[in-house]
Amino acid sequence: MEALFTINGKQYIAKPSTIPIETTLNDFIRKHAKLTGNKFMCLEGGCGACIVMLKGVHPVTKQNTSWAVNSCLQNIYSCHGLDIITVEGIESKKMACIKIQKRLADFMELNVDFVSWDGHEYVFIDGSEKWKSDNGRNAFKSLAIDADKKLLDACKDIEDLSDIKMCPKSGNICSGKCSSLLNIEKNPMSFTFDDEREFHKVYTINEIFKIFETIGEKPYILIGGNTAHGVYRRSTDLKVFVDISSVEELKTYKVTENSLEVGGAVTLTEAMEIFTKVANENKNFQYLHEIVKHFDLIANVPVRNNGTLAGNLMIKNAHNEFPSDIFICFEAIGAVISIQSSTKSSWSSYFNKGIEISPKDFIFTDMNKKVLTKITLPAIDPVIFFYRSYKIMPRAQNAHAYVNAAFLVQLNDSKVISAKICFGGIDPKFVHATNTETFLIGENLFENSTLQRALAILNDELKPDWVLPDASPEYRKNLALALFYKFILNIAPNEKVVAKFKSGGEILKRDLSSGTQTFDTYKQNWPLTKNISKIEADVQCTGEAKYINDHPPLPNELHAAFVTAKNVHGEILNIDASKALKMPGVVAFFSAKDIPGTNTFMPPKMMPGTEVEEIFASKIIRFHHQPVGIIVADTMEIANQAAEFVQISYKQTNEIKLILPTLKDVIENEPERVEDFPQFSKMSEGKGIETELKISGRFELGLQYHYTMETQSCLCIPIEDGIDVYSSTQWMDATQMAIADMLKLPNNAVNMNVRRLGGGYGAKISRGNQVACASSLAAYLLNRPVRFVMKIEANISIIGKRYACINYYDVMFDQNGKIQELNSAFTEDFGSSRNEPVHMGTAKFFLNCYDHKFFKVDAKAAVTDAPANTWCRAPGTVEGIGMVENIMDHIAYVLKKDPIDVRIANLPSDSEMHKYLQDFLKSTDYRKRRKEIDSYNINNRWIKRGIAIVPMKYPMEYFGTSHALVSIYHGDGSVSVTVGGIEMGQGLNTKVAQTAAYALGIPLEKVSVKPSNSLTAPNAIVTGGSQGSEISCYGVKKACEILNDRLKPIREKNKNTNWNEIIDKAIEEEVDLAAMYMYKSSDVKTYDIWGASCCELEVDILTGNILIKRVDIMEDVGESISPGIDVGQIEGGFVMGLGYWLTENLIYDRITGELLTNRSWNYKPPGAKDIPIDFRISFLSKSSNPFGVLRSKATGEPSTAMAVVALFALHHALDSARKDAGTYENGYQHNLGAPTTTENIFLAADTTYDQFLLK
């Protein structure tokens, strides 16, 4: 027996003899179908890299249906009878959809490489009606509503394109291939594997119970969409897998006048469609509109497409702590869950009754060998019943709840007849606030006295637990109280609530995203300064762009995984890999003793620090998850599984050492770890006038993970004279040297090759060396290719982050806010090694654009029990500017001044920033908007707005050397370029191509940028510090000038001859048509980058949620080499900064030192709905940089430093909230730093439930 399916029209089979039971669709596509356009990263449905489209016959409607899924969660045997479409299946130029790919390539800058254009978008053009709903469009329609007609015409909706060929059979858009599987028989299928595990695909409920009768006590799982694996990793003990996704009885629904019955295997997407349809047709189901809005906040579209109602409820059953949104909604409205546990009942009708229980009782029910068959939802009269539900998350979407809530009250006028008050996220057993429900019966709901007594009772019965990384009990308890108040405000008649409070009853509503970009372009220099798409955009949108892990599997190839230690401060006695080595498919284990050379991945010649950072820990464990060795196996899955079976024994000791994984832990518990770094400090030039005005404060900045879509990856291939290394590194030279030193090989035996990276941000400057060394060691010792791709959990846990920083300051200032004396001491978090200090940058950027003659800055740092921290986009810069701008805001708070006036007061009198700021104030209409916001805040107690401006001076310095090679081919005059700079999504190759075309005077289409390697770019400096694109362009420019000099005599003799003929004549005269130039730091002078950012946001004081309504960024980019690329860099850098300041929270277990937020499930960078709604980018006009490359300025990092403006806009909003709360005069908000999460925002507003009033 075998599973049959197609991928892009080609038929494939899966059978137990060749395909293991745990194989996912993503595995099969990449390893067996050999298609690499489909990627993976998180392997839990959280990142979107793996999405494909499935097509099949719906079990109930019998109609052909298309839906997008996460291929990393879809089991391959569940694909029986389905057609699978990957990005490669829609790339042919003969197919109409190539025009859509082209549109996406033209209108997306794709400034972070790696994720191809995938099945999620293709579903929109496949003709499935469900994807033409507003819900489906929600994720993709972001065109400005006021866009001009030309832009609107250019950006037609995908489903509105008129020249797409339609299939005459189905009426859908032609995919180029008709399925051969549409008439496949729907018979039950059973597969038995060599390890005695079983996989079954069934089509009736009766077949499920027949399997239950045969499996005895074997652990089993019913698979609907398998999305639960993205929350709780599936047990490795499971023996039986039963796919129920095609069971018609579980996929149907039935509506009566009094109820709606929905099958347990109905997906969330299907449920949303059913609920919308039923609510539109029957007024007594209008509450389903509220549930649909709530369901839209669950996970993401592909997860909702596969995840089922029963599956979600079963997670709650198995894990009571899971904050199930479906459970909380269904419990509040009085849903009934039907459970079947026997085949003895008649199955002549699907809706025969089995066991019927409430959702609350269900989660405590033993579901062994039982099936959740349906959920029955009651009809509710909207005249007397009022239902609302809420979900509060760390970001706007694709996150689980801090707290979720659902409320249903029955009213007679204002008197409560019945009440259901349900919360999730309090503790695993808490569902109903029963005491509050009981109290409310018979009470007038819309009186202050009733509300306050109800809140007091609710306050007493809410007793949140605290299991990290959950939010604090204080927040969750007060949030629950606030949500109940929000519900009352929402349903109360207008006359019962004062106008100032009424807006608190609403949730924040996001408008359609829009953006404007204003920049200069110089046509006489085109293609230089021309706004073009990235030259890789097309191949990225068609899945042809290749990354490290896209290299085809090689003969005898092995896969690697780190073995890590969990006992921080422990001293290794022995490492026993015998159990792991007995596992089928495991080949070898290597540790420090197997290294022939030096056991460090930080070559001392290259790094600013001198400490040894061991590839594999040899003795003392310095942080949780420190690698002690490497397992090498036949597959990535086996390697990672086997790594967990390696046993480490430690020396016994009576000494107890505190584990201090964070800087705050060190300062509070072992301050002696803090070291002074006077070489990075700045002395004051004196003091100003004596003044009584002074402030003191503390500002805490946390860590930030480099959220690259490609984790640390490396492929090492032994060759006859050394080793070929394909590494995701930003610094080939450092990686080459580290490997050579480790293997005791000459550097010329290590051949580095890099095509592109799937994001870098500094994570791959030095940290990737450890992965490259480990895989190189295994390849060298085994003489076999070794591939090492880190899982996200390992990547986040092992790799260092942006430096955390704590700043203490004392400042004296005059009545205008001008600083007369400033003493600032900042301490940065090294992690476990001092190798990569950022103090110099932090101290320098602390000065920003201000008059700093009275500034004294002391640099300090501490070693913590966490991975060694490393450079992260704008290292030191973000922290330095953030610290000084916090001081400016603090001064303004004391003086009750507009913070921009304090900032202006501290500018040097001759600073260029005076003019830039005045122009920016005018262009943003800041003064007027601030007055309007202040007026709005006076009239709204619970929704507040804030606005702020931050100026920036970014001194740009250049360093290192890097080669560029330009080659001209006489066959057709085409040009190849290769540089030492690494393309990692920032558009380096595009700028290089534009530079070459401009310098040689040829069309851009003639230029091709080739991969970087250590042969043509030996000793190349790191691609980082914002200089990578600029120095690469400089090298290319100089190499082209060398070629132009060689061609000059020929051109002078042949003035009217075209390029191709010039090159032919050059060959005839034996002219060298290849030129190399080595950029050096002295080639480019330093200069300043000026910028300013303005942010306006809105805060829901009752939840802590925010909307960034508008952001304006002015940046001086000189003459932009590629405006579209630079716009993307500025936007992307700013949004990454927003993540640092607002959402990205790294939480450690203080007992073990383990990082608890190490997955997409619990670490949340900004999403599509967290970006500014109105995003306006403008380049300083007519700004030519005489010191820059081709008169340009760098753009990679400055905007990240300007994102702190969002924090000060929050200050403005929260100041108003604190005034209303009566706590404004209590002092400056010291508790806001990085990140200022939803929890921090809520708590900073000083809201208490006694403030929750109606009148």
Notes on the protein architecture:
With 1255 residues, the chain is an alpha+beta fold. Helix content is 28%, strand content 21%. It contains 36 helices and 41 strands. The strands form 9 sheets. Strands 21-22-19-29-26-27-28-37 form an 8-stranded mixed β-sheet, sandwiched between helices. The chain has a 5-stranded mixed β-sheet with strand order 2-1-5-3-4. Strand 3 and strand 4 (64-70) form a beta hairpin.
Key descriptive features of the protein:
alpha+beta; eight-stranded mixed sheet; single chain; five-stranded mixed sheet
Outline the secondary-structure elements.
Layout: E1 3-7, E2 10-14, H1 25-32, E3 51-57, E4 64-70, E5 83-85, H2 98-107, H3 119-122, H4 134-137, H5 149-154, E6 189-192, E7 198-201, H6 205-214, E8 220-223, E9 240-243, H7 248-251, E10 253-255, E11 259-263, H8 268-281, H9 287-295, H10 301-306, H11 309-318, H12 325-333, E12 336-340, E13 355-357, H13 359-362, E14 371-378, E15 385-392, E16 403-412, E17 415-424, H14 434-440, H15 448-461, H16 473-491, H17 499-502, E18 514-518, H18 537-541, E19 558-565, E20 572-576, H19 578-581, E21 586-591, E22 626-633, H20 636-643, E23 647-650, H21 663-669, E24 674-676, E25 694-701, E26 713-719, E27 722-727, H22 732-743, E28 750-754, H23 768-782, E29 786-789, H24 792-798, E30 805-813, E31 819-831, H25 839-846, E32 855-863, H26 877-895, H27 899-905, H28 913-924, H29 926-938, E33 943-956, E34 961-968, E35 975-979, H30 988-1000, E36 1007-1009, E37 1012-1013, H31 1028-1053, H32 1059-1068, E38 1074-1080, E39 1087-1100, E40 1106-1115, H33 1123-1142, E41 1174-1179, H34 1198-1202, H35 1205-1221, H36 1238-1244
Parallel strand pairs: 1-5, 7-9, 8-9, 18-41, 19-29, 27-28, 31-32, 35-36, 40-41
Antiparallel strand pairs: 1-2, 3-4, 3-5, 6-7, 10-11, 11-14, 12-13, 12-14, 15-16, 16-17, 19-22, 20-23, 21-22, 24-32, 25-30, 26-27, 26-29, 28-37, 30-31, 33-39, 34-35, 34-38, 39-40
Helix pairs in contact: 8-9, 14-15, 15-16, 22-23, 25-26, 26-27, 30-31
